[in-house]
Write a structure and sequence with these properties.
Helix content is about 35%, strand content about 10%. Helix 1 packs across helix 5.
Length: about 160
């Protein structure tokens, strides 16, 4: 059964933008939207849902959207733009898995003889925000949820020098 996009705010929503609006934007973009337009309908729906999940990893909108009948336009546009940018990952024969995060959760910090290795969420650090296209960053600015402090679990190694 093909994936169906649900764009009405609520617990079953899986996208901010509908397929028709993303197709219209990709058509307007011409060559920069061509990769999205070349996808099958199922691949387009998957790209939109995946882009919405990526947007969700950066935003905290549940309290603000309680009782809303439509999603805010900046979240819709972020979903549209990201689906178009990530479209090549959903094409037949794509070499990267679109569901695997681009940024690793394993972090290593080495300062002099002190080395620290730890895990932190991959989607809430500055590097993963910078991995988003600038236009998407701009749409998500007011919805971003970035931690004030970063807490990690792991191991540390210190070597006593002479």
């Amino acid at each position: 059964m093909p994936l169906a996009l649900v764009t009405t705010p609520g617990p079953t929503a899986n996208a901010y933008a509908d397929r028709a609006s993303v197709v219209a934007l990709a058509s307007y973009r011409g060559t920069s939207g061509a990769a999205f337009l070349e996808l099958s309908e199922d691949q387009q729906v998957s790209a939109i849902a995946s882009a919405a999940a990526e947007v969700d990893s950066f935003v905290i909108a549940s309290a603000t959207l309680a009782g809303a009948t439509a999603f805010p336009s900046d979240l819709v546009r972020a979903n549209q733009e990201l689906a178009i940018v990530r479209a090549p990952l959903f094409a037949d024969g794509a070499t990267a898995d679109p569901l695997v995060p681009v940024v690793s959760a394993l972090k290593r910090d080495k300062t002099g003889p002190l080395e620290q290795e730890f895990f932190e969420p991959a989607t809430t650090d500055a590097a993963s925000v910078k991995a988003l296209p600038p236009v998407v960053q701009r749409y998500l600015t007011r919805w971003m949820q970035l931690p004030i402090t970063s807490v990690g679990y792991g191991r540390s190694t210190a070597v006593r020098g002479s």
